[in-house]
Amino acid sequence: MRQMYKIIFIGLDFAGKTSILRILEGGYSKIDKIKPTVGTERAEWNILGFKVINWDLGGQKQFREDYLANYKQMLDETNLIVFVIDMQDDSRFNEAGAYFDDILHALDHLKIKCPIVLCLHKVDPDIIYNASMITNLNWVTNLFSDYSHDHDFEIKVFITSIFDRKSLIEMFSYSIGRLMPLSILSQILEDFIQQTKSLGILGAILLDPNLFVVGTAFFDSNDKTFAYKTINAFLTLIGDFQNLFDENQKAYFDISLGNDKIYKFRLNKITEMNLPYYLLVMGTSSFDIDEIYSLFRTKFVSVIEKRIIKLVESVE
Ligand SMILES: Nc1nc2c(ncn2[C@@H]2O[C@H](COP(=O)(O)OP(=O)(O)OP(=O)(O)O)[C@@H](O)[C@H]2O)c(=O)[nH]1
Ligand SMILES: [Mg+2]
Questions:
Q1: Does the model's pTM come out above 0.85?
Q2: Where in the chain is the domain with CATH 3.30.450.30?
Q3: Which of 56-60, 239-243, 287-291 is the least confident region?
Q4: How remote is the CA of residue 86 from the centroid of ligand 1, in Å?
Q5: Ligand 1 pocket, 16 CB below 6 A?
Q6: Would you say the CB of residue 54 lies under 6 angstroms from ligand 1?
Q7: CATH class given for the domain over 183-315
Q8: Is 6 in the pocket of ligand 1 (CB under 6 A)?
Q9: Cα separation of 236 and 27, whole Å?
């Protein structure tokens, strides 16, 4: 059987679980039509040849009670949990925390030690620095860390909003990175930036056809942080404008930092591959993108393609 991963999206009703999944699926257009989820909805995604089944667990009280009564059936063979909390509704933080506690106990009973991702959600860009939001973020972080204290789970916290698609892509890229052996793709990119260092490259990010980050390599961690922030702009543009790419399937983006420092970004659709993967490269002003990309095309594309095919086999 092909390797399959089960990801559970769980949290109170109205937390935003279904909305997150719809945005990750690639569109704002579907958001208006979302209704409260009745029971559980399952969706199968193909990521790098792996089957990822997202379980969206409706959060209304009767469903929560039902899952807790039948937790074995619901949580069995879970590979990762995304727990979503509505950060705009402080009247329900304790209720969300108690539910989280129930889930941790159920996982302990089943002896499941999967990674857990906490989405502190609905932290929209316009309210992220509001005093009340900062209070809420501290409150919930402390509350949930108290609940997780007596357990032994690897918990990673993300601040997310459907109005910041990058925050969701970052959260989900982390999640798939915890499941799949992706480090091999980053190793290939490491090799690539070493070989193109003299051409002014600072780093590279490989995005899959869903725009999830599947590999990164940078010489400097500050550059990496900077590149991640810029991805946001690119992802929004790719989603919104079909004509972003020129006839060579490249998109350009330069950022001048004022002190003579220019960061250049080039996003390339890797047309040689069966599905549209994307390579984002970051460089200095002397960056020779044509030469860098031609080296990528001749020496790395087929290696990456073969590795992606092999990834699935390696875990079977
Ligand atoms: N402001 C804001 N609203 C959001 C965000 N995410 C979701 N919402 C809204 O929150 C409401 C509930 O979203 P859903 O995705 O249906 O929530 P759910 O967790 O799936 O709810 P159940 O299916 O009942 O468990 C909808 O009106 C969404 O538009 C967000 O990041 N910011
Ligand atoms: Mg829902």
A1: yes
A2: 183-315
A3: 239-243
A4: 8
A5: yes
A6: no
A7: alpha beta
A8: no
A9: 10
